[in-house]
Amino acid sequence: MKVNKIYLVYILTLIYFLAFSFNMLLFGIFLFSIILFIKNFGFKYIFILIFFGIYFSFINYQESKHFENAPGEVTHLKPSIDSFQINGDSLSFKAKNEGENYQVFYKLKTKEEQEYFKNLSENVLLEVEATTDIAEGQRNENGFDYQKYLKTQNIYIVVNVNQIYKIKSLKTYNPFDILKSQRRKCINYINNEIPKPMNNYMSGLLFGNITKDFSEMRDIYSSLGIVHLFSLSGMHVNFFIESLRKLLLRLGFRTDQTNKFIVPLSFIYGGLTGFSISVNRSLFQKNLSNFGIKGIDNFSITVMTFMLIKPKFLLTVGGVLSFFFSFVIYILANKFKIKNPFLANFFQSFLLSTTVLPILIYYFYQFQPFSIFLTTVFNILFTYLILPTLLIIFITSLLTGYNFEIFNFIFIVLERIIVFANGIFKNPIVLGKPSLFILIIMLLLLFLLFDYFPRKNTIYIIPAFFLLLLLNKWDLYGQISMIDVGQGDSIFLQDKFDRKNVLIDVGGRLDINSTEKWRERISNSNASRTVIPYIKSRGVGRIDILVLTHAHEDHMGDLLEVSKEFKIKEIWITEGALNSKSLVEKLKKTNTNVKLVHPGDKINIFNSYLEVISSLKKGDGGNNDSIVLYGNLLNKQFLFTGDLEEEGEREIVNEYSKLPVDVLKVGHHGSSTSSSKEFIELIKPKYALISCGTNNRYKHPNKETLEIFEKNNVEVFRTDLDGQIILKNKKRQLNIKVIK
């Protein structure tokens, strides 16, 4: 019976992913699995498979209709009160109107308005003037897809509010709204009354609310591979529910009474923590277990129930990890018995971390080997010290009004320990994103290993697994990518077999400081969403040469962020770039060898080289002082021009009578001050690559520049329309792929 159920769940999962994202590999596996299923179990469960197949397809069909019937404007919004996020003068929240879900953005007009929404905890109805739009999709290979992320929450439309005319209080008896309101009140109390950094831990661990203030520390926890401690799930549910269960039993309640009483309390706890998928899963399984349904039966019923009531749960990273962790725990339960509790905890962490490694690198591209030890230690610390302390402080503070600043030192010391640990274990192993095929093979190998361990044959599974793990680091062909960084530049050259990695510029943005303190926003670097995840997804953890073409923010602004994530062997700049105080300060902080380049310097890559051909004289670090690189790559002639303008182009025209170019990286984002008629007629490019932001305020690329390319029969690719641009050599032909 148990085998039947888990096999049924396996087939349902395949149907699930086929319905929501059709894939030929999955389709082939699905057909093969169905044949085996019928052979072993007959047609007993076929009607269940047919039902779920139709159900998933219907949901997918409904999803497509949402975009077709999207309203052009919205006049009323009912916010989800516990979703308010305030960052300077930016307000965002989720809302409903006439059955439709929205993601809403609003620029706050005054400090008083900011304070009002910061402390708002009652349900309200907003009368607004607003426009609607469809969220931006994926722009870089393996990059964040905001549209896909919102779809997992049944949100298809983004609302930009221009004006709020009226705010009306709403009386509601809906239990979900009541719980959201109470959760909001608790979070507001913590933010206003509990000192930092204790308030961040209390808000995150008790109510599942991570604030912008905590973003820097969260990045450090993430780098150490223990950020999951803040993802409310099994550890937190077991602590709260089991503590409550033991209390009720000691008070004299019978076991059956206690189990029934725990059900509504679980609903309340789920609401107070935001009804996250991992908490819902843990609560559901915990209650099933209390009523005697355990093991694989428990897991199978949970999966099928969630497929009905929360059908998109496996389309989120949190959903996949939560259910996969749960599945692995059930599979490994009682397989390895160790009497010492610490060793047992460590060994379980090791097995879990190893088994979920393929899933982790599929989503995050890297692995922190010390996370197994750190997870064991900090899991005990959080379970037996941090969580109980925070709960006691919160309840006592609510009753007495005392903020317990005396205990804040615990969290100050904790953060210092975390920062110290990050200094020691700061370089995770970057493995890259495996293909779906390799991911499936790795998972099968691991389950074979655990199923047949400790037989002699299993020794061969281990090297096969690690070989597959490293495959993504050894690209067989190499490629050149113009990463979509918005209004800026970043180009990545990856040689085959990871022999050499060259990055030309890192992107960045010019921050316009507000004159009013309350308007200032905490923002992540542009590179953290574009350059860094893309390069890591390629299995690259080392940059051999980083070329900063010149000293403007949109080319070198994110240098520090990139240097924290990758080992950089050498940075190339012009002598004139040293005039930039901002760049010099960044270079000092990187502690990296810096080379001042001159014409004739070469970068060996792709069995060829790139040669510096400009700047020909000492400049000031500006556009015409850009490092210009020329060479034969992928059997084509490439010219990378930075932000070179007409003056710099004229120097090249005067220096070279011929300069054949197949692929031109267009200077200065397609501005009218670059790509002059004389320059384009000299180099005669076949393809032009333009890096520029969507609807940028500079109106790049310029209409006149595009006309020059058109008259010279140059095919243009641009990141604002095409997203990332990837160039590969296939069968000695240049293959150009765009992401959008």
Report on the structure:
This protein is an alpha/beta fold and 740 residues long. Helix content is 47%, strand content 17%. It has 27 helices and 23 strands. Strands 14-13-12-11-10-9-22-23 form an eight-stranded mixed β-sheet, covered by helices on one side. A seven-stranded mixed β-sheet has the order 15-16-17-18-19-20-21. Strands 1-3-4-6-5 form a five-stranded mixed beta barrel. Strand 18 (636-640), helix 24 and strand 19 form a beta-alpha-beta unit. The longest helix has 30 residues, at 371-400. 37% of the residues are buried. InterPro entries: ComA-like_MBL, ComEC_N, Competence_ComEC/Rec2, Competence_DNA_uptake, DUF4131, Metallo-B-lactamas, RibonucZ/Hydroxyglut_hydro. This is DNA internalization-related competence protein ComEC/Rec2. It is found in: Cell membrane. It comes from Floricoccus penangensis. Its main location: membrane.
Query: Span between N and C termini?
Result: 46 Å
- Tell the overall outline: globular
Portion of residues in beta strands equals: 15-25%
Estimated helix fraction = 40-55%
Instruction: Report low-confidence residues grouped into runs of 5 or more.
Output: none
Q: How many helical elements?
A: 27
Question: What distinguishing features does this structure have?
Answer:
alpha/beta, single chain, eight-stranded mixed beta sheet
Describe the structure in brief.
The chain has 740 residues and is of the alpha/beta class.
